[in-house]
């Protein structure tokens, strides 16, 4: 049997697998990733791309490429609730940071913006950049069981074109093989929750719907009409893929009765019903089935096997967290694998992947499931429910426009429930506030004083375990972010105008131990100036203090003052973070 040697084998070229390949290749690690498909994902799935993901793309230098393919945040400006696209409009939410009161914070707390980038664009972007940086990809290749060897992992793969088996030998295996992960199953990772709670269909089609959409630009038109409450997320969704002629319908089905036959006339019927255009002649370009899951792994790794993405968190698309979190998992793990493979860190550093990302997996599955449940009160305010028949549904929605005290109360209740959907549509904290507790973070005793809702609002802090806050700086000619000073597989020490001793200590350590560590002073007359005073507001340490940031942009350690021997202090901190004995 032919054998291929690499450092890391990644099963999957979806958002998780291709981010892992891109990151490892960028860090100079030999990586082979395989996919059973001929090319990237053939189905339209993820699209909402949050700021944390865009910050990661920025670190890899491909943010602008992504934005060029994406629909901008301003085009995601409404979530429209209606009885059909051409029918009665029930109300709108300004989602994804588009409400003026929220836009300020979305703009203030990141270098970049949310955007709508369909998975069919994101994956080729990640894969092609991974290849440009030296990753080895094998499409049409099926993963068979792996075998642990004395020096790593041997994956049995099968070339689907020739049927020929071959062996891929690596030091580590990353299972990024999605919601039916064989890698997670074979590794025997423990899990909670359940798969396949309800069923849903995807119908992709082309039709010019601009006359019904451009005045209320949106990526999601939520259709509440008789029949649309069965299965799925409890409503029919018309999702804009490309403005305003490429669309995806997400429509549930009765799980107990089994999936419908996705014939063109069935799909056309649903398209006409949700658009409210009985004579529309859409071009159907694809159909697929998926299930709503409520499932997460409680351990993400075993030995030399690590799982990322949907392999370890499987949940509905509410909040748009799946692909985002999958990419963020890989970003968390890749630098650790790279530093261990290069001998800079001890293998124990890899334990922090599980400690940091397993709680995130549980948290996002729970959030996505609650966001489905929170549609219940909206339906209730409209007078809808499981026992309400089709005629009563239509009548109840019509009565919402009555000039009566009862209808007035229902209108108010409906509006309140729409506003409560901020936990799905403007959950900036869910997207940006992930906090890590692990051996790769050294906590301090400074209490977190924020009383803001951590799901709704991003709470910037330099507290160890949090993402480094963004602040605009200037390097005499260019505006750049604190986030631009970190990443690219390096640790970064940030200090103020009085922190020269810290910078000297960091430079000496970096040279002596060949550590990937850079140090910068931010302040008046320094290379980086805080001209707006934003960093001063956010840094939470004095000018003489310092903040050590990991390659994934998370704070590893901070010091409010200066140690008498900064070289010794920093050496001890780095030794602990890198799990060096
Ligand atoms: P993914 O399933 O994408 O990839 C798995 C990879 O593994 C594929 O390359 C496959 O070929 C490979 N593979 C599997 N088994 C294999 C085997 N045995 N051998 C070889 N290769 C194998 N998320 C989000 O962030 N924002 C959003 O707006 C949405 N919206 C959305 C809408 C709808 C309708 C759905 C169904 C889903 C979303 N999502 C989403 C979720 C998102 O699509 C999902 O979380 C990601 O695709 C997960 O990425 P992964 O890379 O983990 O798995």
From TrEMBL:
Keyword Cytoplasm carried by entry: no
Span of domain FAD-binding: 5-368
Annotated GO MF terms: FAD binding; oxidoreductase activity, acting on paired donors, with incorporation or reduction of molecular oxygen, NAD(P)H as one donor, and incorporation of one atom of oxygen
Coiled coil: none
Domain of life (superkingdom): Bacteria
Gene3D superfamilies: 3.40.30.120, D-Amino Acid Oxidase, subunit A, domain 2 (3.30.9.10), FAD/NAD(P)-binding domain (3.50.50.60)
Protein keywords: FAD, Flavoprotein
Keyword Flavoprotein: yes
Protein name in UniProt: Putative 3-[3-hydroxy-phenyl]propionate/3-hydroxycinnamic acid hydroxylase
Biological classification of the source: Bacteria, Pseudomonadati, Pseudomonadota, Alphaproteobacteria, Rhodobacterales
